[in-house]
Amino acid sequence: MTVNRERVGVYPGTFDPITRGHLDIIRRGAKLVDRLIIGVTTNMSKNPMFTPEERIAMVQREVLQQGIANVEVTGFNALLMKFAEHQGASVIIRGLRAVADFEYEYQMAGMNQQLNNRIETVFLMADVSLQPIASKLVKEIALFGGDITHFVPPAVRDEVVARVEAQGRLGDY
How do residues 158-167 score in pLDDT, each as one tens digit? Predict the structure, then answer.
């Protein structure tokens, strides 16, 4: 008798804001598991532009527009491995853009393995056309009045621009 066990993956991040790169990893990661949980975390050291609730709603909307049926979005403010364990995950999915990402992610994967060696970390390389995109850079470009259309979906662009207009741009060239 075989046991049919659902394979659950967690893709954690701050998603402040969600980018086309994030959505690429979500689409591809969802193919690897039966259920992919997008864990939107609070990371105050990243100086978020959006509240956790706004980011969760943003990610939910964009995932829904992608039509990916096996994805759930939830917030968390805990140790990643505790969150993953609570979700019944066997896989953590992480996206890599560059060598600098790999060094950080490799160290994190090693620490996470020490915390729970039953949960594997899987790295997905970002699509070549999306590799330069980072939420931090998207926010910086927007703060200086640059066009972020190619980096984020249209609704996200509108939200970022509205937030920047409310807070005030940094440059006037």
Answer: 999 999 999 8
Q: Where are the domains of the chain?
A: 8-167
Query: Is 150 considered catalytic here?
Result: no
What is the architecture, at CATH level 2, of domain 8-167?
3-Layer(aba) Sandwich (3.40)
What residue type is 167 in one-letter code? Q
Q: What is the pLDDT of residues 63-77, one digit of tens each?
A: 999 999 899 999 999
Annotated catalytic residue: which of 20, 55, 135, 157? 135
Q: Is 97 tagged catalytic?
A: yes
Q: How far is CA 22 from CA 12, 96, 110, 133, 171, in A?
A: 10, 10, 23, 9, 27
Token couple for 135:
């939420």
Report if pTM > 0.85: yes
Q: Is 135 an active-site residue?
A: yes
46 is catalytic: yes
